[in-house]
Amino acid sequence: MKKNIVLALAMLSLAFSCKEQKDLGPAPTSIDKTTLSASPEYVVRSILYTKDNPWTNGKPCYKLVEKGGTVVLRWAIPKNCNYERVEVTYKINDVLVKEDRMRAASSFDSEYVDLDQDKEVKKLDKGYTRLVIDNLKARYGKITFFVTPISRSGARGETISIVSEAKPLGLRPELKTDSRVREDIDPKTELWADSQEESEGPLKDLVDGTKKVVDGKEIWTPNTSTYFHMNWKSPTPFPHYIVVKLDKPAVGVSFDYIGRDHGGNLNPKTVQVWGSTSFNGKFEKADGSDKFNPADFGAKTIGPEQVFAAEGKLAKGSSDLLAMGDEQASYIWIEFKDCIKDGEKFLALSNLNVYTYEVKWTDPEREGLTKAQIDQLVAKKLLRTQAEIDELEKKLSGK
Ligand SMILES: [Ca+2]
């Protein structure tokens, strides 16, 4: 009797759930499990300039590299797809992080980044949905991702799953603010400007101060009686660029300047710093472009825009300490977007210093872990060994 009641209740609840299902309209189209794949996300990086990998034809080279901490799920959008979205759920069961997570994807074709003739391009992944799952760590190990289509009215379709794991995150730089070194800039081989006035203000006068070392400490005395002047006879509009080659690749940089000993107010206002691994000394426009753009030459912005307000003779400005991501720059591009004097097309500066900073590389995968936890995870091959970190650090520091 009791058994019968239980059975009756079970049937009743089944009937209810069937009824609820029916109220939610037709079941969402199923996703074909054989089309579901998982891989790391790929990002475009410019290749470091090396002897083995010379920069050819004045253009940098790019490659696709795996991005740590990510898994990209990809599946074919079914024929006659009627679902509104796809829900992906997964569980993180780590020594520090234990949580259920959910991501949603649409039912539209996705885009992805690829290389086409060494250029970064967006391509359409026709007929496929891609979902980037980030905020992962390699030490989370294997993760099962459950993929469920959901209809507009909330009906849940057939759940399929795939197991994958994230690649380790790259080492993260921490700048040592007390390690500032002023770059000794050789104006003949390490300094360029896109706009040079022919009749006055040669570029070399930007870095013609004198250096003295007292008690092991460098004292730089700028020569403010000489100056660099951008082209004023036949000027082109801002932005204008000064490029400096660093003595060795760096992650952290800053700069300071002194304006000209002149009341013309030809002082910088808005400045964006860029970094690149290579530069051919020419401010060429990319094929088909009407404007010079550092990004076309593999340069990336370093830090936010710097805005200066100093006016008048010998105006001074210092940038913040600016840091690239986990990449290094060999060339620093100082992009001057405008001038304190409204409507002007050029600047004049009596001195420019560029500084670089040492970094300490840390492994974000190890963050917050005790020594015992680290040892345990290393033994399980879920964390890098110290030797692997040392090896990476050597590479990143260009040693
Ligand atoms: Ca000078």
Report the radius of gyration as a whole number of Å.
29 Å
Strand tally is 24
CATH architecture of the largest domain: Sandwich
What structural class do helix, strand and pairing data support? mainly beta
Summarize, please.
The chain is mostly beta strands and 399 residues long.
Question: Can you offer a commentary on this structure?
Answer:
There is one protein chain. The chain is mainly β and 399 residues long. It has three domains: 25-169, Immunoglobulins (Immunoglobulin-like), CATH 2.60.40; 174-360, Jelly Rolls; 363-396, no CATH class. It contains three helices and 24 strands. The chain has helices at residues 2-23, 371-379, 386-396, and strands at residues 37-46, 62-76, 85-93, 98-105, 110-116, 119-125, 128-133, 143-150, 160-164, 172-175, 181-182, 191-193, 210-214, 217-221, 228-229, 240-250, 252-259, 270-276, 300-307, 316-318, 322-323, 329-336, 348-357, 359-362. The strands form seven sheets. Strands 11, 15, 17, 20, 21 and 23 form a six-stranded antiparallel β-sheet that branches. The chain has a five-stranded antiparallel β-sheet with strand order 12-16-22-18-19, with no helix packed on it. Bound molecules: calcium ion (CA). Calcium ion (CA) binds at residues 205, 208, 223, 226-227, 350-351. Residues 205, 208, 223, 226-227, 350-351 line the site of calcium ion.
